[in-house]
Each structure stands twice: as structure tokens, then as C-alpha cells.
């Protein structure tokens, strides 16, 4: 079956919640997306519709496309943020990352995104558990780890302030987390462990820099 959505269906996909993948549209649109394998209807009330992994790939760009490559580059090398589009993005930290224009507004966004992620865990983990990461987090490791840290009150590194940095690693299902000192690194480890991750502290052989290697817990 052809899974390419129509223009109207694509607008519904693009407007999905950036964290949970929750969809809003007419019943006919949602049903059509389910038939194409791009969405699913959650079995628990209120029976909302959410993007499947295939639907997420269409929204974000398939692997190998310029859109997907650009997204991966943004995760690995943070840049100055573009003008706000109303879409939440986790702050992964880095010297080129600017502070948000409003601390109070950012705090509300982060809290809302974290609550949405906990709800996604409840709805997509087979046992409804919220104490361990879900499939979305395992597919967006850097963003998920950064959200857990920021939601707990940790500050990301910027051009003017020290803080955490989250980076990709060659190891599957693992991110590297850096912090300005041993105390901050230990605090990040405690936060990630409470959020359902398995952090371990390591040392880079060439530089002697201490960092965390963190993976989402499965059980």
C-alpha cells in the first residue's frame, strides 16, 4: 500500500505534537492515516491518535534525505537558534547555543514538554510505566536526555555560562553528557538515573575529560 500522505494529511502530520506525536484532525483524516500505517489510535481513553515510527519519519525526513541529514547535524553541532516557530526543541548545550529570550517562558515550555513525554511513556510502554524511557526517546537520544536534564533544573552550556552538553556517540543507544565539574557531572548522573536512564562515568583517554555515557533503561 502507498503510504505517502495527501497534502491535507501531511499538514496534520506536520502539526503533530513535537514530543508526543499526538495528532489533531478530522476523524476521516486520522482514520486514513491509521490505514496507511502512519498513525495509531491509542486503546486507552480518550483514544487519541499518535504518529507511528513511519509517520515520525515522514515528518522529520527519511534517513538519508537532506532534511534528515540537516537534523542530525543540528544535534551534533548546535547552532544559534532560528527565529521561533512555536515548536519546542530540547537544549543540548554548547558554546554556540544562545540563551532563550524568556527564562519564565522557557520554564513553562520545558515543564509542558516533560509532562507530555511522561504521558507518551504511559501510553506507549506496554505496562503503562512512566519510570523508564519509551520508543520515542530511544529514537531521539540526544533530545530526550537533554529534556530530562533541563526539566530537572540543570542549565545547558551557552557562550556565556558553563553547563551540560549532550552529544551523540558511536555506541548504539547511548549519549555522552559533559558537565563543567565533577559535582555537576554527578548531579546529571543522578537526574538521568531518576529519569529512567543508565549513566556510567568514564574518562576520555586522550584528554582526561570525565563524562557520562547514558543509555535509556529498558526494564
TrEMBL record:
Bias type Basic and acidic residues, positions: 67-77
Ranges for region Disordered: 1-20, 36-86
Highest taxon of source: Bacteria
Protein's name according to its UniProt entry: Uncharacterized protein
Amino acid at each position: 500500500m502507498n503510504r505517502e500522505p495527501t497534502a491535507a494529511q501531511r499538514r496534520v502530520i506536520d502539526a503533530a505534537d513535537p514530543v508526543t506525536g499526538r495528532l489533531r484532525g478530522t476523524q476521516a483524516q486520522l482514520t486514513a492515516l491509521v490505514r496507511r500505517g502512519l498513525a495509531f489510535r491509542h486503546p486507552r481513553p480518550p483514544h487519541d491518535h499518535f504518529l507511528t515510527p513511519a509517520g515520525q519519519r515522514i515528518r522529520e525526513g527519511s534517513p538519508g534525505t537532506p532534511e534528515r541529514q540537516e537534523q542530525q547535524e543540528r544535534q551534533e553541532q548546535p547552532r544559534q537558534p532560528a527565529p521561533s516557530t512555536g515548536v519546542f526543541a530540547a537544549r543540548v548545550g554548547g558554546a554556540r547555543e544562545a540563551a532563550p529570550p524568556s527564562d519564565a517562558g522557557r520554564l513553562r515550555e520545558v515543564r509542558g514538554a516533560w509532562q507530555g513525554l511522561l504521558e507518551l511513556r504511559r501510553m506507549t510502554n506496554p505496562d503503562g510505566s512512566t519510570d523508564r524511557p519509551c520508543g520515542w526517546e530511544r529514537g531521539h537520544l540526544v533530545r530526550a536526555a537533554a529534556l530530562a536534564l533541563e526539566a530537572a533544573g540543570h542549565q545547558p552550556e551557552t557562550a556565556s555560562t558553563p553547563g551540560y552538553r549532550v552529544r551523540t556517540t558511536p555506541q548504539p543507544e547511548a549519549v555522552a553528557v559533559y558537565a563543567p565539574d565533577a559535582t555537576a557531572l554527578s548531579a546529571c548522573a543522578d537526574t538521568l538515573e531518576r529519569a529512567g536512564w543508565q549513566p556510567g562515568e568514564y574518562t576520555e583517554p586522550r584528554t582526561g575529560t570525565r563524562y557520562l555515557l547514558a543509555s535509556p533503561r529498558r526494564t
